[in-house]
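re: ur question from earlier - yeah i can do the single chain one, its not a big deal. heres the input i used so u can compare w yours
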Amino acid sequence: MATHHHGHHHEDMLSVEDARDRILNQFGVLDAQNFRITDALGLVTMDQIRSGVNIPPLDNSAMDGYAVRSTDVSRATYQHPVMLEILETIPAGSLPRKELKPGTTSRIMTGAPIPEHCDAVIPFEETTEKEFAKSGQLSEIGIRIPALPGTNIRVKGKDIKTGDSVLLEGHVITPATVGVLASMGMSHVRAIRKPVVSILSTGNELLTPGEKPAEGKIFDSNSSSIIASVFQLGAIPKYIGIARDEMESVRGKLKEAMDSDLVISSAGVSKGDYDMVKDVMSEHGDLQFWSVRMRPAKPLAFGTLNRGSDTSVPLIGLPGNPVSSLVAFEQFCRPAILKMMGKSNMHRRTIQAVLKDSIVNYDARRVYARVIVEQTEDGYTAKTTGPQDSNILTSMVRANGLAICPEEEESKNPGDIVTVIMLDE
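and the output i got, formated as tokens:
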């Protein structure tokens, strides 16, 4: 194999795992920041979170009804209600003003703190309130059922006690988490920040979507699908634009990408491309060009760009074909971004499915075939989405999975079981 003229040797083909491991070794978890709790969805907590409050903060009523002493109403029946004197009404958000002496009760609303000496709440429906309601202000009420101590009372700290560890570090924040943080009075939470991912395309033939079509030019779709993929992960895409195949253009674009956590470039990494882009990138850092034993997406570049002052930013160079670019993003960029975000689960779920048609593997690479997975009574079936050439992006649109034909198998045939990486979130 000829070496490239800037001295990088062509390596033997790497397995997908080797390539992924080499890439992931260069990434660590980012630092934490304070986020408003409602902005923290999907982020990962940096510390254990302990409650500063009891939830509920006080014993309170689970019902609209009457606060009683259970001993007062132990003999109550429908025929012979026990009559109690009404002291006050306690709305939610107010404190009781009077303690219950024997023979008394207070009208209480759901969530209101229970008065002293109260050990049960009787719902309105089990009292004579309906019959008396017409007579205006009530001074007494008939209780029609007995109650065990603790009936309809929510105990202080039952859900969360002060000092309880409510969330462990490494917890992925869900809508329920946001609610729990709010219930503890927290407006902000420390979580691992979102990675900023610079996205760069290279090529003289590229137009930005929205420009006028021109002979010999194609629209750059890779940047857009990568921006969307980065968004979907909850990271922050920073679109740098299209670098032309001139030294200065590429240098300028790389400079803009330097303050991010990862640079993803597409095109400019396969053998047939201008070596120019590689040269400029290599001036700015250390890049390796790999052939990965996979189809699509064999050519891959990985390395670091020097920022100066001994720091560098990792760069993953994806192949230019739109499908290759998305499949390579799935295998290499997605886990790197999730690792920076502190996610422990970096891989999509896989299922086993019965293949409905054929996947041909003609050069001992791992084939990722775009498939439509359907659930049947017996499990899953997978059917390819038509022509699998790496320039046919519509093959990805209909796909909800990538079915794998392993390196060592020449084909997978109808009725075979395949492993499928599921692409639906």
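The chain has a mean pLDDT of 91. not sure if urs matches, ping me
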